[in-house]
Write a structure and sequence with these properties.
- With 216 residues, the chain is of the alpha/beta class.
- It has one domain: Rossmann fold, CATH 3.40.50.
- Helix content is 41%, strand content 22%.
- The protein is globular, with a radius of gyration of 16 Å.
Length: 216
């Protein structure tokens, strides 16, 4: 099986650092969970691809959805399970590769992948698996950074809601400079989508990223 993630995997202290650094985005996780819950019937089966430490997955479960999280990182799987248990919700966290998902055809009513697609070693394979595991008529949403986003816009967006020290701003600039190099342009995503048989797919740009809407 191919390596599931481009660059170093997030394990151990790196995963714990990421977990701590993303905690500040709790309001955004709640907003996105509300958006997804509004698109899926109560109790619907939702797959989060690359949930990381599980913030969004837990928020989705709190809204009465049947949530599964698939991540390549053993550390994130463990942290996600602990977070779900502490929150008193049931989330199935499964370790695996986005391009080789361990689920049957048509298993899910909705799929979401936030801030992770750029890290997949086989992005087109991941899109094909997303198509496969969604039931006919179901939707998916990918949210990620754009490679052609300006760094000034990225920094402004990062700290529009959250105060940050000078050190945090400088380290954030360094990290996102690396992440931006891994990211795709909207045109590159559209080219990949043209080779995957979704009934409909569209890409919406925002100042620093894009939302990819999928319909099976």
């Amino acid at each position: 099986m191919a390596q599931g993630q481009r660059g170093p995997g997030m394990e151990g202290w790196v995963a714990r650092w990421y977990e701590k650094s993303t905690k500040k985005y709790d309001p955004e996780f709640r907003e996105l969970a509300d958006q997804v819950a509004g698109s899926v019937r109560d109790g619907g089966a939702v797959l989060e691809v690359a949930p990381g430490p599980g913030y969004l997955a837990v928020e989705l479960a709190k809204r009465g959805l049947d949530v599964t999280g698939l991540d390549i990182s053993k550390t994130f799987i463990e942290r996600g399970r602990e977070r779900a248990s502490s929150a008193g919700v049931d989330v199935q966290f499964v370790q695996g590769d986005a391009a080789h998902m361990p689920f049957g055809n048509g298993s899910f009513d909705f799929l979401v992948c936030r801030a992770a697609f750029k890290n997949f070693s086989d992005p087109e394979g991941a899109l094909r698996e997303m198509w496969r595991v969604l039931r006919p008529g179901a939707d998916g949403l990918i949210i990620d950074l754009r490679r052609d986003a300006r760094m000034s816009d990225i920094v402004a967006s990062l700290y529009s809601r959250h105060s940050a020290s000078l050190f945090e701003q400088l380290s954030g600039r360094m990290i996102f400079s690396t992440l931006r190099k891994r990211a795709y342009t909207a045109a590159e995503i559209e080219m990949m989508l043209s080779r995957v048989p979704f009934a409909r797919a569209s890409v919406e740009r925002d100042p620093i990223g894009m939302s990819v809407h999928l319909h099976r």
